[in-house]
Write a structure and sequence with these properties.
By secondary structure, the chain is α/β, with parallel strands linked by helices. The protein is 29% helix and 25% strand. A hairpin with a 2-residue loop joins strand 11 and strand 12 (267-272). The radius of gyration is 24 Å and the shape is globular.
């Protein structure tokens, strides 16, 4: 059995099968045990398919082990810290809180441990065979598993799903050392947080790490090459986030180009185009992720890979080679675990011969777990106008929402973009954009509205509970009918 990677505690057990030198037949062979791979396995096994998964690290992939789950665990620690720091507002007297980061990371790994073990048990319960090794695709559609002990196994399957995931992108000249230069992977290995941090890249991952580190005590500077952080997010929402970040003492610099850095004792000096510099104890490189396709042995198989490393597929996630599919971070679709789940179901339905509908990527839900949280679905106001729609938008801030006031968290807004009807009111909902308290848990109504192409007048009839945060969505919709209650 392969030893656990250096970033994982030795106490985490992995449910695996030894690689044995034999040929086995399966309905589906899956290379990669992350969200796409394990979702395909679970969904297919539930339908009676005989499934094999090949994974050379840990079940759960990036999401469970190096991404979604550990990041949100640390963000929850940051929220607890903020709550304690502000408890005097509620009449709860507390001394200045102190962070025990080792205890925080221990809890983080405990949550990861439970989820990975639970996933392994669930797969075993559905009789999914799990192979510990690196899977490569053969020209005849077979999958060869190279075990870490040198043994091999050949898997024959009617269908093959490529789901090997991704790894963090890096920057030229920024060699990752785990101390001064970090990617998201190395942040989770830290024993303590650096005093000053430069986060290179202001996308979703960069903003989450920046927000978390600032709340836990680091001085943070975000460096983004594009004109705004959170590229692709509605401009009104971005303004809310930037204002909140700056109020907490974070420095946000957009439109900057990085030329390199000069490490020195205790940190580094980042050189920017134009001669400016930024001093930091550590640099978190957060410039996206790249597909992990080079280990799949695709040369000569007929499966095409583009210049960025993504496996080329059609809208059905078919590679062009009969019976071979690719899903998740390996293809050029939104790098989200829930998108990988949807692609996995799409593929398994095709394998089963069941009716299937391609994923509509322009209407998937997006969530960013910084503070304030961000959640959105559909078109931004700018994108809708550029697409030729005559639009009307309505915004309601949390400052007037009773539940938000009770929580003491009133930053942000709900914004809904709709087609404009001849009378000036809203018609079909095109986009829903939220920033503020627990909006990642509130996007469901907006997601249904956009994907069902619902009309404003239809949604306005829904009754929202009072007092609740969801009332702000209802009030924003009601205003688009021309007869709002509070605005």
């Amino acid at each position: 059995m392969r030893a656990l990677p250096s970033w994982a505690p030795a106490t985490l057990d992995v449910v695996r099968e030894e690689v044995v030198p034999t040929a086995e037949n399966f309905d589906v062979a899956i290379i990669g045990g992350g969200p796409g791979g394990y979702a395909a396995a679970l969904y297919g096994a539930a339908a009676g398919l005989r499934i094999a998964i090949v994974e050379n690290r840990r079940l759960g992939g990036t999401c469970l082990n190096r991404g979604c789950i550990p990041a949100k665990e640390l963000l929850q620690t940051a929220e607890v810290m903020r709550t304690v720091q502000e408890s005097d507002r509620f009449g709860v007297k507390s001394s200045d809180p102190a962070l025990d980061f080792s205890a925080s990371t221990a809890r983080m790994w405990s949550v990861v441990d439970q989820l990975v073990k639970g996933l392994g048990t669930l797969l075993k319960g559905r009789k999914v065979s799990i192979y510990d090794g690196t899977g490569t695709l053969g020209g005849d559609g077979t999958v060869t598993v190279s075990g870490t002990d040198g043994s091999t196994a050949e898997l024959r399957a009617g269908s093959v799903i490529l789901a090997s995931g991704s790894v963090p992108r890096t920057l030229p000249g920024f060699e990752v050392d785990g101390t001064v230069v970090l990617t998201s992977d190395e942040v989770f290995q830290l024993e303590e947080l650096p005093r000053t941090v430069a986060v290179v890249g202001g996308g979703a991952i960069g903003c989450e790490f920046a927000s978390m580190m600032r709340d836990l005590g680091s001085e943070v500077t975000v460096l983004e090459a594009l004109p705004q952080v959170l590229p692709g997010v509605d401009e009104d929402v971005v303004k809310v986030v930037v204002k909140a970040f700056e109020r907490r003492g974070m420095k946000i610099r957009t439109g900057v180009r990085i030329e390199g850095h000069d490490p020195h004792e205790g940190g580094t000096t980042i050189r920017l185009e134009g001669g400016d510099t930024v001093e930091a104890d550590a640099v978190v490189v957060s410039v996206g992720r790249r597909p992990l396709s080079e280990s799949l042995g695709l040369d000569g198989t007929g499966v095409r890979v583009d210049e960025r490393g993504f496996v080329v597929v059609d809208e059905w996630c078919r590679t062009g080679v009969d019976g071979v599919y690719a899903i998740g971070d390996l293809i050029a679709t939104p790098g989200l675990a829930h998108v990988a789940y949807a692609e996995a179901i799409l593929v398994i339905k095709q394998i089963l011969g069941e009716p299937a509908v391609p994923v509509e990527y322009g209407r998937v839900p997006w969530c960013v777990y910084c503070h304030p949280e961000v959640a959105f679905v559909g078109m931004t106001e700018r994108a809708a106008k550029e697409a030729g729609y005559d639009v009307v938008a309505s915004k309601h801030r949390w400052a007037g929402n009773g539940r938000a006031m009770i929580l003491g968290d009133t930053e942000g807004m709900v914004k809904i973009v709709a087609e404009r009807k001849p009378d000036g009111t809203g018609g079909r909902v095109l986009g829903v954009h939220l920033a503020g308290p627990w909006v990642t848990e509130q996007l469901g109504q907006g997601y249904l509205a956009v994907n069902w192409e619902a009309e404003v007048a239809e949604i306005a009839q829904f009754i929202q509970p009072h007092p609740s945060l969801s009332e702000n969505f209802g009030e924003t919709v009601l205003t688009l009918t021309g007869r709002g209650l509070h605005g």
